[in-house]
From TrEMBL:
PANTHER family: AMINO-ACID PERMEASE BAT1, OS04G0435100 PROTEIN
Domain of life of the native organism: Bacteria
Record's keyword terms, sorted: Membrane, Transmembrane, Transmembrane helix, Transport
GO cellular component: membrane
Transmembrane spans: 32-53, 65-86, 107-127, 147-165, 172-193, 213-231, 252-275, 306-333, 354-375, 381-403, 423-441, 453-472
Protein name listed in UniProt: Amino acid transporter
Keyword Transmembrane part of the UniProt annotation: yes
Membrane topology: Multi-pass membrane protein
A Pfam family recorded for this sequence: AA_permease_2
Protein species of origin: Microcella frigidaquae
Length: 507
């Protein structure tokens, strides 16, 4: 009896995909840097900070900056769990296929259904927030109609770039990354060093936002400042089949997205707070759109225009990345036969190797939602909150699925592994996620029932319709893709890489 000679420690991309039951049909033209750029521009510190800067200060005051630390740490735990999952399952679609392989078809259907709606709504929200900055850049009045037209233009521009193929997606993502780094780190440092008008002690000063209540309630109310910022890292895994060496590179890209994104957001948020000419006006709500005025006061009209151009570039890149990630999820749903019109959704353009039909859907539905926001502008903030809550719910379904498999004996077999620490990290990630969802699900206090409860109403409508379709149409019955096979796949990977030695007889 003798053991076979040692085998390679990792599988080739094609062989790894073969183990998972799929053919290698996409162009693997995305590098680690491009994959990180995709995740980073989806997370987009500029979008997160610029979109909710005024809201965060008016609700929680300058101490709302500490949510960047709290949420960043929690989401890093989630990213570590995702890293182990994608390292074993480097396949298109992210949340949906991960949930399927960790639990089952029905569970994955619900996770994917909630996630796709949250992503589509996020595309709308980012394009809407970007429209205001684009209007300032080109010097037109920002109103409901101009915002709608610019929003639609941003969606169509992103669609055109996405249609051109993965290489152009990667190029524009890298341009967006450069714009983000200049816009958040470069400008943030400049404001901190040369334009500081307020003392660092303001980050411990509520400036009266609590009114007659307690500051803790106000601080929790400002949680959206961090919760809206720290997602997007999962997009690195949504395009796994277009990345070279995805099992190694995607977990690294996810972690870099969180770390670099968090540092960038801190520089940006703190720079604007400390450079604000009249911070009290922002905190009181008197200045509802403070960033353009801060830029003009610190950089002058020309400098403000330059940085508005950088900001709009970052917004375009963020919409592009979101649209790409949403289309890959729709493609994954379609490839497994889990949606109406699944054959149409699963078609890949023979010329550019992109899921063209899924891209059309990922542009059309956000455009329809943008029209609804044009009809009722008060929907934008609740729509944003729903998007964040939906994404957190989908994230935690994957975290819970991973923990369930660990309890059953799963040891992740990809090249990225936390080893024995994986179980503890998984438990902590789930605890953080439950806490975050509790904060996001809190009703408002405006006194209007629909406005205060629209986030939970929206999540309820999405969940109920998804569950109804699942029970009535039974889409999983026609889907033969693998499910619930985390332990079996891990064993097969270890067998092929020699981690589980095979035994042969010598003649």
């Amino acid at each position: 009896m003798s053991q076979t000679p040692p085998q390679p420690t990792t599988l080739g991309d094609g062989e790894h995909l073969e183990v998972l039951g799929y053919d290698d049909t996409f162009q693997r033209s995305m590098s680690l840097w491009a994959n990180f750029a995709l995740g980073f521009t989806y997370l987009s510190p500029i979008v997160g900070v610029y979109s909710l800067f005024a809201l965060s200060l008016s609700v929680g005051g300058p101490p709302s900056i500490w949510w960047i630390f709290i949420v960043g740490a929690g989401q890093l735990l989630v990213a570590l769990v995702f890293g182990e999952v994608v390292s074993q399952y480097p396949i298109h679609g992210g949340i949906y296929p991960w949930a399927r392989r960790l639990w089952g078809r029905r569970y994955a259907w619900l996770a994917g259904w909630v996630y796709i709606w949250a992503m589509i709504v996020t595309v709308t929200a980012v394009a809407e927030y970007g429209a205001g900055f684009a209007a300032s850049l080109i010097g037109i009045e920002s109103n409901a109609t101009s915002n709608l037209l610019i929003t639609l233009a941003l969606l169509l521009l992103a669609l055109g770039i996405n249609f051109s193929g993965t290489k152009w997606l990667a190029r524009v993502a890298r341009i967006g990354l450069a714009a983000e780094l200049v816009g958040v780190i470069g400008l943030g440092l400049y404001l901190l060093i040369f334009q500081r008008r307020n003392d660092f002690s303001v980050f411990f000063d509520s400036m009266g936002v609590e009114g007659d209540g307690t500051y803790l309630a106000a601080f929790f109310g400002a949680a959206l400042a961090g919760l809206f910022l720290f997602y997007g890292f999962e997009a690195c895994g949504d395009v796994a089949e277009e990345v070279a060496q995805p099992a190694r590179r995607i977990p690294v890209a996810m972690i870099l997205t969180i770390l670099v994104g968090g540092v960038s957001a801190l520089f940006s948020f703190s720079g604007y707070v400390l450079a604000a000419p009249n911070l009290q006006d922002i905190v009181s709500g008197a200045d509802a759109d403070p960033i353009p005025s801060i830029l003009e006061a610190t950089l002058g009209p020309v400098g403000a225009k330059v940085f508005l151009a950088i900001t709009v570039t970052a917004f375009i890149s963020c919409v592009l990345s979101l649209q790409a990630a949403a289309s890959r999820l729709l493609f994954a749903f379609g490839r497994d036969g889990m949606l109406p019109g699944h054959r149409w959704l699963a078609k890949v353009s023979p010329r550019n190797k992109v899921p063209a039909n899924a891209l059309i859907v990922a542009c059309t539905i956000p455009a329809i939602i943008a029209v609804l926001v044009w009809i009722n502008a008060d929907l934008l903030v609740p729509v944003t909150a729903f998007a964040v809550l939906g994404i957190y719910v989908a994230f935690q379904m994957v975290v819970l699925g991973a923990l369930r498999q660990r309890v059953k004996g799963w040891r992740p077999a990809g090249p990225f592994s936390l080893g024995r620490a994986g179980f503890i990290v998984n438990v902590l990630a789930l605890a953080y996620g439950i806490f975050a969802m509790y904060l996001l699900a809190q009703p408002g206090a405006s006194g209007d029932f629909f406005t205060d409860w629209v986030v939970l109403i929206g999540l309820g409508v999405v969940a109920v319709t998804g569950l109804a379709y699942l029970l009535i149409a039974r889409p999983e019955r026609g889907s033969t893709a693998p499910e619930g096979d985390a332990i079996a796949v891990a064993d097969e990977i270890r067998r092929r890489t020699g981690a589980i030695p095979t035994v042969s007889r010598e003649s």
